[in-house]
Amino acid sequence: MAPLAPGSLIVIVGITGYIASHTGLQALKAGYRVRGTVRSMAKAEELRAAYKKEGVDVGPAKLTYVTLDDLMSELQYEAAFTGADGVIHPALPDLYGEDLVNKIIQSTLIPMRAAAKVGIKRFVLTGTLVAVLMPGVPTIPMDRLITDKDWNDEAMAKYRNATEEEKKSPYFFLYVYTAGKTMAEREAWKYMDNHSPPFELTVTIPGMNWGPTLLASAPTSLSWLAELLTGTDTPLSMPPLYIVDVRDDGKLHVLALSAPEAAGKRIWAAAEPIDWNAILAILRKHYPDQPIPEDIPTSSINPCPWRVDNSLSTKLLGGKWIGMEECIMDSAQSLGY
């Protein structure tokens, strides 16, 4: 199937989200016409103003919005997708309440069914690194690259075999989320095999996203950076993984629409492994007056010891990722530092 050419109309689900907002900006820069789904038109207009500051055409011929307030409504998706050629789907349902795993699965399959009905040609789904591995566990392979063929079977087993006591732990939410995203992605690939829809599927696998926020509200991942800048060391308790600048992540989502080699693939949105002490050193260098936490001991998991095969993503980006220092400084600046 031919890749989507500039000028094609694409739909970005939940366009005011952190990754989605940058995806929309990159899509406009690449020459696509963008239709963003939103829950709030007020926030949508805030995003339009942010895009205008970035120097892109945000007139009605280039950027439109449509309300989609129910991620489980196939009819709303059909209305949003009608007339478009491509879909980028980074959105998630509200992560609370009962039956969260099934909610995540259905919020993936329902838009795929709608896309098939209206004749979408390319569908880009945002996956997650934890569908491939669980950072910090000792069983991650160190003797080879982690590839798009790997899955987080260990976390799935912990989710399925959890005792009632384990389910009461606040940490069990991570296994619920991981199970939902892993099963949703596997069901998406199964849907492609069983139903042969008119579109090609690409799944992005993001690491930890930092980078400037386009809207006033900061995403959770940037709150970790804000904590480090104010002397809180809580983020350092997290096992280090891979970092990606959200601008590169957005660009990869858009490149997946046009790159023939991305069709039918899982592609890593992951630039380089994290060393928490290297991040702290960058912060001390640029913010000597801030109470940056002390270094943490080097260990078997810090710096991040495993490696992913991001060669395809690197190729799509022309061989260059935004570096960690630039990513961190632009993030801090967008937070007001």
Main β sheet profile:
7 strands, parallel
Number of strands: 10
SSE order, one letter for each helix or strand: EHEHEHEHEHHHEEHEHEEHHH
Output the CATH class name.
Answer: Alpha Beta
CATH architecture: 3-Layer(aba) Sandwich
Q: Summarize the amount of helix as a percent range.
A: 40-55%
Describe this structure in words.
Keywords: Oxidoreductase. The protein is an alpha/beta fold and 337 residues long. It has one domain (9-212, 246-272, 309-322): Rossmann fold (3-Layer(aba) Sandwich). 41% of the residues lie in helices and 13% in strands. The chain has helices at residues 18-29, 41-53, 74-81, 100-118, 153-160, 164-167, 172-195, 220-229, 246-258, 276-286, 311-316, 324-334; strands at 9-12, 33-38, 63-67, 86-89, 122-126, 200-206, 208-210, 242-245, 266-269, 272-273. The strands form two sheets. It has a seven-stranded parallel beta sheet with strand order 3-2-1-4-5-6-9, with helices on both faces. Helix 3 (74-81) runs parallel beside helix 4 (100-118), helix 5 (153-160) crosses helix 7 and helix 10 crosses helix 12 (324-334). The model has no long low-confidence stretch (mean pLDDT 96).
Write the layout of secondary structure elements.
Blueprint: E1 9-12, H1 18-29, E2 33-38, H2 41-53, E3 63-67, H3 74-81, E4 86-89, H4 100-118, E5 122-126, H5 153-160, H6 164-167, H7 172-195, E6 200-206, E7 208-210, H8 220-229, E8 242-245, H9 246-258, E9 266-269, E10 272-273, H10 276-286, H11 311-316, H12 324-334
Helix pairs in contact: 1-9, 3-4, 4-7, 5-7, 10-12
Domain NmrA-like: 8-127
Protein name: NAD(P)-binding protein
GO molecular function: oxidoreductase activity, acting on the CH-OH group of donors, NAD or NADP as acceptor
